[in-house]
Structures are given as C-alpha cells and as structure tokens.
C-alpha cells in the first residue's frame, strides 16, 4: 500500500540536524468586497503602491483580487507574523471594504464586469494584463477569482548533503532536482490528504455557475448556496482551476529535462480551442498572448510545481534548466476560513512533515496510467472524501483501502518525523499536530470542510462570509504591527511606484530610439 519507510525514518532520527533551516514562503489571495458582500469595483488602492513592483502586496487576476507575499524565512512564527502584519496594514487601509475570507468567490451579479488587474503602461505591465485577458477568454472570469494559498517549501542544503552525499547546491543540482521530483511524484500519489484535512470549499454561491452545467449532484440551499454533502475542496474540482487541453496530461515529473521539455512544448503547441478565440479583436485589442496550449508557464494549473528564482527576463523553465529545482510550490491549499490570515501554524507544520516524508519514501517513476489514477483519487477526495468508509486506490493494480487505514499508516510515519523535528527545539509542536490531525481520519466531521459546511448551512455563504470578514477586519485593525512598521510599508509603496515609473520611462525611451533608428 505505502512503501515501508522504516529504514529512511531511522536514518532521519540519527541525522536530525540536517532538517535545521527549512525555508518557507506564503502567498495568500483574497477578494476585496463591498460592505454588502458584493465584489468591489474600485481600483487597487493607491496607498498600497504599485501592484507591478510591490514586494508584499500585489494583485492576481482581477483588480479586486489582492495577493499578499511573504519573504522566505526559516522561522514559522516570524513567517506568520509577517503575513499577519500585511493583513493588519491592509485592514486599516481598505476603508469600508473587507477581505473575503474563503476560497470560492463572493456573490457576483451576472452582468457585473470583473475588472482585470492593471499594471501600467510598461511592456511587462501590459503583457501581464493581456495575459489575464487571455485567461478570461479561455476559462472565464469567475474561475479566475477563486482564491487560494500557495506554500513555498525548500529543504536545507544540509539535508541534501547528508541524504544524497552532495557537496554544494550547484554541483549537486541534478541530485537535488531529482530529490524534489521525488517529492512531487509522491505528492501526486498521496497529496490528496491536503484537501481531505484542510479543504474548506465544500460549497459555493449559485452565481458562480453563471449558466454553466455540471454533472455533480449539487444541493441548493435556501440561501442560494450549492454544495456537496461530502465535498472537501470544490476549488480543486473541474469547476475550478483546470487546464482543459488533454495535452497537459503529457507533463512529465520523472526527470527535470523531460518536465522542462513537456512544459516548453505546451507553450509552443497551438490549441484548436484557443485558435478559435483569435489573437486580437477587430479594434486591435489583445484577446490572449498567443493561441497555444499555455500562453506562459504560469498557466499550468497543477497542485504542485517545481520552482527556481528567476533572473531578470528569464522564464521559469530556463531558470530550472540553468540551476535546477530550488524549491517547490504547493498550490492545493484552500483559504482557511477559521484564520484571519487564511492559514495556521498547524497546516504549515503538517506540510513540513508530509513533504519530508515525500522526500524520503521511495518514489518510483510515475507513468501516465498511474498519473491518471492519482488524479482520480484527488477528484474522489475533492468531491466525496468525507463519505463514511470511503476507499481509495493507492496502487491501481491492487484493491482499494479505507482512507482511515491509510491515515493510520501515514501518521505512524509522520509522528516519527514530528519527534525528530521537535528534538531541534524545546517544544512538542509537531507531535501535537500529529495528535490532533490523525483524529480527522477517524472522524471526518472534524475536517475543515465538514466544520465549515455546518457553519455555512446555518448562515449561508454570503452571511458567513460577511460575518467572518467583519470579525477579522475588526480584529486585525486593532492589533499592533510586529515585524514590519508603518514606515516600512510607506517606503515600500513609494519605492514600488518609483520603480514602475522608471520602467515605463525606459520602455518609452527605447521605443522612441527604435523609431528614430528605423526612421533614418
């Protein structure tokens, strides 16, 4: 069922120091809403600075879709304090507007135009907006205002030195990359535990369908809410972030060169569906950046991605080719509605343990058949994961197992990792997380999705969202900043505006010089 990890766990217990220095970063998305619960129609607040160049506060698809980005840090408390400071600052700057506290969008009227995020007149700014225009035409605006948490994770060099016997990150880039790909393959096999435990989108507003059809047997409440009784994360379902082209299934995670090659192929291969949309309208406005399967690499919607910090003007695939995988991005976390900042330390510590487990448990190459079965497992958990005595095919060649059985085995291993991590401090934080979360497999009613669905059934999605948004705004706006002071926020806002203006001036100068050269 699950590979026996006893030997690897014993090794880890004798090398605890190799886990010192795990690095993490968080990206949190949230919609700005009006006091009546509808999507805000105002521009991105100018006091925040430029969303194009601000380090911490930007926008995602829409002008009303905020995104908060933390720097990378190896201390969980500092990381969460930084994220909370961003929320505290924004709460005080939004005026009467609120931050929507869940992944699935607020109520949106059918005739409401969702304003694409605007980034100014520089080439990169215009490209970012045109890319979003392509997303709108390909998938629809409503899907693109779904919010989530992206969790960036990297193991310290000391781990790879001890585990794989490498000397440094550059000389060992192929070995480290293979190590991260091993994590990714195991994440595809077992990562469904994330939406099972932490999925928090079992329902959504009826307006989200906007005439679309679904084969799923949704229940309609008196509040205009659609839900599934055992769903965990409808954000991750076929109604949410997906790439419709079957060619995406050819993305390969068995070695880095094949992954890069398959990604580049998707970016260069035309899609009949997207060719039909066209490139520009009759007025010459861009409808999409190109008509290929992916406009750019960011359009690949998968639950986990290999990443590397890029150099100026460098694509992600070229960065990976240059230096190998530097970290991984977990993209399957819903906004935690029970937290004012959308994520809690319990989730981070579980992810730490689970990703370490994925790194040390044997992870053979994964073929398209197994990948297809893995996706079926994810879909099963996403739509009916809390069903009593639910089973899942861990190995598609063998009979299914009860989810509770898999949970017992997994948490037996995770508890050993927890003890190893806790040995590096004077606390038992990781072991406490194991103690709490393993009960979720015995009793699905304890999961985030079950608890949140019960709350939604009482107040409705709109009522719950407004209640939580108001509560969190009051709470956050009254708290003192811990890590970033107000002057630093003001300085970053000014710096970002100056940086954007500089980019725009440089682009105009280059355009003028090009014109003069051609004119002569």
UniProtKB/TrEMBL annotation:
The keyword Secreted does not apply. Pathway: Sulfur metabolism; glutathione biosynthesis; glutathione from L-cysteine and L-glutamate: step 1/2. InterPro entries: Gln_synth/guanido_kin_cat_dom, Glu_cys_ligase, Glut_cys_ligase. It catalyses: L-cysteine + L-glutamate + ATP = gamma-L-glutamyl-L-cysteine + ADP + phosphate + H(+). Keywords: ATP-binding, Glutathione biosynthesis, Ligase, Nucleotide-binding. GO terms for molecular function: ATP binding; glutamate-cysteine ligase activity; metal ion binding. Its EC number is 6.3.2.2. Residues 11-380 form the Glutamate--cysteine ligase domain. Pfam families: Glu_cys_ligase (PF04262). One of its GO terms (biological process) is glutathione biosynthetic process. One of its GO terms (cellular component) is cytosol. Belongs to the glutamate--cysteine ligase type 1 family. Type 1 subfamily. This is Glutamate--cysteine ligase. It comes from Candidatus Erwinia haradaeae. The gene is gshA.
């Amino acid at each position: 069922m699950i590979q026996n990890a006893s030997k690897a766990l014993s090794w880890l217990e004798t090398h605890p120091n190799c886990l010192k220095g795990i690095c993490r970063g968080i990206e949190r998305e949230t919609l700005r809403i009006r006091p009546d619960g509808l999507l805000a129609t105002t521009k991105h607040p100018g006091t925040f600075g430029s969303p194009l160049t601000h380090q911490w506060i930007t926008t995602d698809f829409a002008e009303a879709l905020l995104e908060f980005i933390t720097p990378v840090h190896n201390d969980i408390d500092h990381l969460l304090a930084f994220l909370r400071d961003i929320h505290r600052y924004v709460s005080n700057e939004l005026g009467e507007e609120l931050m929507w506290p869940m992944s699935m969008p607020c109520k949106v009227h059918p005739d409401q135009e969702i304003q694409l995020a605007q980034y100014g007149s520089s080439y990169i700014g215009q490209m970012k907006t045109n890319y979003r225009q392509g997303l709108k035409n390909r998938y629809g605006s409503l899907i693109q205002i779904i919010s989530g948490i992206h969790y960036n994770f990297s193991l310290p060099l000391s781990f790879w030195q001890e585990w794989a016997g490498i000397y440094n990150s550059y000389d060992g880039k192929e070995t480290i990359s293979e190590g991260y790909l091993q994590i990714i393959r195991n994440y595809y096999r077992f990562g469904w535990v994330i939406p099972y435990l932490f999925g928090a989108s079992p329902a959504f507003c009826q307006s989200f369908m906007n005439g679309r059809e679904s084969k799923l047997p949704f229940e309609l409440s008196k509040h205009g809410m659609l839900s599934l009784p055992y769903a965990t994360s409808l954000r991750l379902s076929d109604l949410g972030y997906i790439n419709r082209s079957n060619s995406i299934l050819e993305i390969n995670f068995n070695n880095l060169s094949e992954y890069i090659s398959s990604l580049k192929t998707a970016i260069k291969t035309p899609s009949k569906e997207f060719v039909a949309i066209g490139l520009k309208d009759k007025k010459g406005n861009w409808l999409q950046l190109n008509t290929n399967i992916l406009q750019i690499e960011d359009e690949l919607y998968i639950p986990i991605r290999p990443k590397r910090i890029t150099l100026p003007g460098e694509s992600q695939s070229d960065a990976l080719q240059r230096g190998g995988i530097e970290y991984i991005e977990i993209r399957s976390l819903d906004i935690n509605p029970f937290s004012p900042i959308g994520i809690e330390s319990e989730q981070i510590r579980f992810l730490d343990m689970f990703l370490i487990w994925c790194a040390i448990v044997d992870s053979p190459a994964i073929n398209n058949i197994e990948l297809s079965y893995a996706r079926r497992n994810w879909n099963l958990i996403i739509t009916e994961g809390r069903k009593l005595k639910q089973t899942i095919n861990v190995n598609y060649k063998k009979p299914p197992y009860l989810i509770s059985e898999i949970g017992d085995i997994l948490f037996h291993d995770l508890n050993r990792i927890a003890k190893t991590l806790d040995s590096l401090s004077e606390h038992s934080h990781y072991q406490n997380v194991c103690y709490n979360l393993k009960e979720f497999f015995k009793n699905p009613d304890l999961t985030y999705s079950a608890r949140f669905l019960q709350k939604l059934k009482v107040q409705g999605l709109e009522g719950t969202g407004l209640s939580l948004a108001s509560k969190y705004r009051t709470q956050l706006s009254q708290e003192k900043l811990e890590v970033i002071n107000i002057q630093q926020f003001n300085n970053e806002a000014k710096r970002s505006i100056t940086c954007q203006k500089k980019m725009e001036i440089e682009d105009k100068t280059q355009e003028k010089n090009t014109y003069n050269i051609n004119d002569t």
